[in-house]
């Protein structure tokens, strides 16, 4: 077996602790060799509070996985690439498209791997849905992505600040699946964004895309959380992705799923990219978010407090 790849995790918060740390710990490919966070640490792992110090003191760490929110992420990613490190970006990969294009160019010029991850694309039913829709023409589709912001982003005010994307932060997960499974790309036709009177980003959004596809994102859903997509092709094939894309049925029949979970699959992919000297930067989900922000009609929603 090849040597484990040493990785540093940056931004030790909710997703780093919930998903990245356990996925690295259970992988034969990876070793968590350092963390960078102003306050977060991981037991037994050398901790730094400053990215430049970690990069200078730990030359053997070849990969940095950035788990902080999108707005501060660019400066960290650029520092890592300048220091000759491969970089893995949490979703959404940046605060703007242009900054991710800039990172992509930096990585290419330096011969480094950049992986703009989309964890929902790795959900266990996504490839079955993609296979079922391959070569078909879509007649209609609908996405319901409805979850409780207080459960998934407790007290994280950044999600309601400019660049935090509001409900489009989880919504981009739905769009990452949509852009993966559809046989041909769709484009946004209209959107309505409901933004709390005291906040900067939407808490609810409705979208209409070409090919008869509609979507409804809601961040105030209590009780059972709903992450579903349904598609009907012109030949009558129906595809239902549910549980965030982790289950799939085609014409009512349950499909065989991928084996790896979302984050273990992301780290397996990053390991492949690093070992083969390649990158994976698909910004199509973020293009849709940008279009939704550009074309969306604004409506004021009741003020939101945690
Ligand atoms: P979070 O817990 O609020 O933030 C992660 C860490 O980033 C924080 O603990 C903080 O660590 C650091 N950080 C925050 N603001 C910073 C700043 N301005 N400058 C430097 N560091 C800063 O957020 P999260 O929920 O883990 O989300 C992080 C990313 O993962 C987001 O892009 C999100 O979309 C994605 N994600 C989240 C979830 C989820 O369920 N929450 C699921 C999948 C993906 P220090 O204060 O210690 O530096």
UniProtKB/TrEMBL annotation:
EC number of this enzyme: 1.1.1.48
Residues in Gfo/Idh/MocA-like oxidoreductase N-terminal domain copies: 5-115
Enzyme class: oxidoreductase
GO MF terms held by the record: galactose 1-dehydrogenase activity; nucleotide binding
This protein's UniProt keywords: Oxidoreductase
A Pfam match: GFO_IDH_MocA
Oxidoreductase among keywords: yes
InterPro entries: Gfo/Idh/MocA-like_OxRdtase_N, Gfo/Idh/MocA_oxidrdct_glycsds, NAD(P)-bd_dom_sf
PANTHER family found in the cross-reference section: BCDNA.GH03377, DEHYDROGENASE
Protein name per Swiss-Prot or TrEMBL: Galactose1-dehydrogenase Gal
The organism's taxonomic lineage, starting at the top: Bacteria, Pseudomonadati, Pseudomonadota, Alphaproteobacteria, Rhodobacterales
